[in-house]
Amino acid sequence: MPRPRVRPSGRSLLARPVVIGLVVLVVLAIVGVVALRTTASDTTAVRTEEVVREVPEGPGSSSTVQLDATVYLPDVPEPAPAVILAHGFGGDKSSVDGQARDLASRGLVVLAYSARGFGASTGRIGLNDPDREVADARALIDYLATRPEVRLDAPGDPRVGVAGGSYGGALALMAAGTDPRIDADAASITWNDLNQSLFPNYSAAAGSGAPTTTPAPSENGDAGVLKRGWAGIFFGAGALPAGAGGSTDAGGDTSGPSAAGQGAAAPVLDPSDPAAACGRFALNVCAAYATSAVGGQPSPETTELLRQRSPSSVAASITAPTLLVQGQRDTLFGLEQADATARQIADAGGSVQVRWFDGGHDAGGTGPVADAAVADFLVDHLTGDPHPADPSFAYTLAGDPTDQGDRARDLVAARYPGLSGEADTERTEFALTSATGTPTQIIARPPGASPSAVSSFPGVGSLSGLPGGASDALGPLLAGDLPGQTASFVSEPLERSYTVTGSTTLDVTVGPTTAESGTVLFAKLYDVSDDGRRTLPSGLVSAVRVAPSATPTTVTVSLPAITHQIAAGHRIEVAFATTDQNYAVPLEPAAISVALTDGRVALPTVPAENTTSSFPVVPVVGITALAALVAALAVAATVRARRRTAADVDPALTDVPLVITDLAKNYANGFRAVDGVSFRVETGQVLGLLGPNGAGKTTTLRMLMGLITPSAGSIRVFGHAVTPGAPVLSRLGSFVEGSGFLPHLSGRDNLELYWRATGRPLADAHLEEALDIADLGRSVDRKVKSYSQGMRQRLAIAQAMLGLPDLMVLDEPTNGLDPPQIRTMRDVLIRYARTGRTVLVSSHLLAEVEQTCTHVVVMNKGVVVSAGTVEDLIGASGPVEFRVDRPADAAEVLRRLDGVGEVVVDEDTGAVKAQLGATDPAVAIRTLVTGGIAVSSASRSTRLEDVFLELVHDDTASGDRPEPTTTSGARA
């Protein structure tokens, strides 16, 4: 029943605009969080088929339930792996349409369906009843095994994964724990134990199933604290009468019933029907909620019902590789829920990957980051050979929401520390002192527990990060911890910034507590800025129920699991409040004493590496101003330099892709890697830069890309002088000395991340054209760390072609490619140049250069030794082959000509090969005919390799600098 409210004298508790704001927030929470929807991607090749599957209503029942489903079929020639895709609470199959289409576009057959009691499916909501909802998933796997589009591992055993978020995530885990046919499962923002989720601080001793090392369980008492706010939303979303048409989706729209029951009218409620107040819920679920909502604590029957509907009951039986994606902004299912599931799976010998992201039920549900992680995981484990889940641990360190310059950073650790105890977690102790100056603080719980503190709103989370104006507008709703109701313990200002990753415990002495129900406290970890602003990370609170005791009781309290960076100069505050608007709190007035047992808190951090660019934080406060001044001067100098570079343009060369003049590079040890190199590249050319190892090719290319600064000379691209960071470099695409791909991301994600770093619209990247060139197929959606060298090389070529640059520079692009791939690459470069663009390629495969390039520049020991067209370079050197009737006589005639070098007769073919040198072949032919020798043909049999070896061999052996030569048409 509703609890009484006490209105403080002298002012209204809630102004009308604030009430309206609260209503809006609750509506957003219901329609925007509980039901999870993914934006549809461009998947025009995906076909869909509507199906209705009949399943038994329950064990031994003769009645059936109809499940409304859609099958998404990829455009692939052979049977493909399949995925069962489950939706969030309050949604239906349409809620996951975008995610289903994305998975199908990656080559997977997807079956998305509306669970019992949702959308157009019949039946009642059983909260993932093992005998009903979980059995439904197994029946759908049976159905998939009959479809010809689905790959089978054995008769009746399809290659199948199962995935879902929130309500659907728990279904995925429970299905994987009861059906060994499942080959991969991915669960997002879901629960481990509904007892712990809805009644946090529920005792492990009372049967929660969570390990004692997990932050989730309480070590004190056997009753949790009901999340009244979330429970009301969670159960309210299913309170519509059974059979009522439509479902509320993530966008807030009400959609009519689909295939399984179109046109069904909402039934008229019968007050005499005990199910009338239960809406679409099963009667036992309805009764469990009713008793808990009234009393604020679960009955033994409710505890057992929730245990049966929790992944914790079957986690030890999950053998398929598992991905757990949990939101860092989630006051419904916190990080500790995924932690408990991960520990249970790992302790039983299973493989599991854990990923935290900056989202959750308080931040729009899953979203593209979580959905992409799920898709990558399913494709990796369903299309490849069986292998364990990646043990690495990724999480997001969110920026300050009031500071747009402080952006989120993605970090990755080698493994999830929850799987190996405390070995990968570092803890730093901070001393805390009482805010009142006395070790023990006395705080009160007012009659009716009103007014109550407001830490967060369900579905919205913490509002403490809103700008001051917004906070002021919401007035009393953001009162936070109320005076007289909160015990506070604070640290000294931090000497350096500190990143909290995970949860910690501390001992608190409370009491005595004589009330029959004990007492309830709400523990919070605040970040307090130097101006006194208090930030409660993600609005997370730990509820603690302390059992009745006539003497003070020391209890161990788990603070919320968070990821949060506390800046240097800020303070850490641990607070204990007697009330919270979102929880069921005892209504009797009470005075409670609170003291920290040892006055210290040990906060965890997980050593990890950044996977997105960020600037290091300088930990020494005293040099901040100096650092800022230096940074400002550096920025100003860079801007001026770039302006000078942008202004340094030769108007006569604005249409010429590349002109290099007298380029040189000296190193500190005196070595001169490049010495006076000059050449020119025209539009439409494919120019090969050749030379043995140490010739200076890569150094030249790195100077061209602005990666290193020349010691002398100039480089102009389309007339603009090239220096590091020059704006004209945006017209270049390059692959020089490796690509630097992030191994834990897919190929597609790497390309998109690279392009976003340019600041240009994604549409300008021509991503699909680049992917067609790379020809990676479905592998482009796999993690790069699984790529072969050839696949990495092709992905690098695609990266170089993003944006279709006017000049593309490639250093050894065919390394790691097999012959068919090399041929494909050759065709790609030729076609690319024919579009009016230019390609500069360095390669050791001279036969490929000969077939691909129109022009070549040969370098040796830092200088250009020859330059020109491939045709002229080959034609200016090498032997001429003569087909004659008297080979021996012909050889003697040719040897008598001035300037002719070696003459050889091929005994097998009878042909004569002669090094004519400067002698014109026409003169040689005329001399042979005059001597009575019949000549049937004369041709050069020279290969580029022959010319190359002739140019560099003698000079390489002697160590002398070669003299440059040119052929007709050369632009050296």
TrEMBL record:
Q: Name one Pfam family in it.
A: Peptidase_S15
**Disordered as annotated region, ranges:** 245-266
Q: Where are the transmembrane segments?
A: 12-36, 617-639
Q: Which UniProt keywords apply?
A: ATP-binding, Hydrolase, Membrane, Nucleotide-binding, Transmembrane, Transmembrane helix, Transport
Q: Does the keyword Membrane apply?
A: yes
Domain ABC transporter per the UniProt entry, residue ranges:
658-886
Recorded superkingdom: Bacteria
Alphabetical list of InterPro entries matching this protein? AAA+_ATPase (IPR003593), AB_hydrolase_fold (IPR029058), ABC_transporter-like_ATP-bd (IPR003439), ABC_transporter-like_CS (IPR017871), Galactose-bd-like_sf (IPR008979), P-loop_NTPase (IPR027417), Xaa-Pro-like_dom (IPR000383), Xaa-Pro_dipept_C (IPR013736)
- Locations of Low complexity compositional bias? 250-266
* GO terms of molecular function: hydrolase activity
Q: Which family does it belong to?
A: Belongs to the ABC transporter superfamily.
Q: Enumerate the PANTHER family for this protein.
A: ABC TRANSPORTER, ATP-BINDING PROTEIN
User: What's the protein name?
Assistant: Alpha/beta fold hydrolase
- Top-down, what is the taxonomic lineage of the species of origin? Bacteria, Bacillati, Actinomycetota, Actinomycetes, Mycobacteriales
